[in-house]
Design goal:
242 residues; 4-stranded antiparallel β-sheet; 3 helices
């Protein structure tokens, strides 16, 4: 396990790291499992296939307004993966115990960049990430020096029941050849969800080409959702493969 206290840019960051308020918009897409596996091969993990031959890619953008890592914007590309060392599950257990492998995680602030990379091995990099969460349609873009990687819009869904227990997700990451698992707890409220509901535009950045290879420029979202208020807790990371 990692140390419980980390020095980041002259500040002390103690584990677990807590996010007290964030707003999230996300969408999930079914993509070819073989192509997705090729994208994350460097991690040593295997994509989950809830449908034969199909993997799940999740796109999300987040505005963090109150937390131990400060205020910042973030965009995430993640894939559902099987726990290391487990065989493909049968039809009734394909989603049991799966985690989320964080493949790409641009942010717009240096402090969270250093914290994310050094504490958990999250693949953070600096980008310009304008967000608009005020309107009915939630919008985000990721740009590098004016060059667009991706834009996403999430249309409004219907109100969903509140959660009674905070779900824990295994968040996997891989940096410098080391794959790690981080327990991650989320407590969302003011949630809306719907089938479909997301539109993706891919630019000319190299990451856009990778996502285009998964068919995300023409795929219909399985579902999308927003949460106006989310609390999160990140525990320390554990190495699962080196």
């Amino acid at each position: 396990m990692t140390s419980t206290v980390h020095a980041i840019q002259g500040r002390r960051v103690a584990l677990p790291v807590r996010i007290r308020d964030a707003a999230v918009a996300s969408a999930m897409f079914a993509v070819p499992a073989r192509a997705a596996q090729a994208v994350i091969a460097y991690s040593g993990l295997d994509v989950a296939e809830p449908l034969p031959g199909r993997a799940i890619c999740s796109l999300a953008f987040v505005r963090y307004t109150d937390g131990d890592l400060g205020r910042y914007h973030e965009f995430a590309v993640a894939f559902l993966v099987r726990p290391p060392g487990t065989a493909p599950a049968g039809p009734l257990g394909r989603l049991r115990g799966i985690g989320a492998f964080i493949h790409w995680l641009p942010v717009d602030q240096e402090f969270t960049l250093e914290a994310g990379r050094s504490i958990w091995g999250f693949p953070k990099e600096i980008a310009d990430i304008p967000l608009n969460l005020a309107g009915r349609v939630k919008r985000c873009a990721v740009r590098f020096g004016g060059r667009t990687a991706i834009e996403m819009a999430v249309r409004p869904g219907v109100p969903m029941p509140g959660v009674t227990a905070a779900p824990e997700v295994a968040a996997y990451s891989c940096m410098d050849g080391v794959t790690r698992r981080t327990p991650w707890t989320l407590t969302p409220s003011a949630v809306r969800a719907r089938p479909g509901g997301a539109k993706v535009f891919l630019g000319d950045h190299p990451v856009a080409e990778e996502l285009r290879g998964l068919g995300l420029d023409r795929a219909r979202a399985l579902g999308s959702g927003t949460a106006r208020h989310v609390e999160m807790v990140f525990e320390g990371a554990e190495e699962v493969r080196r």
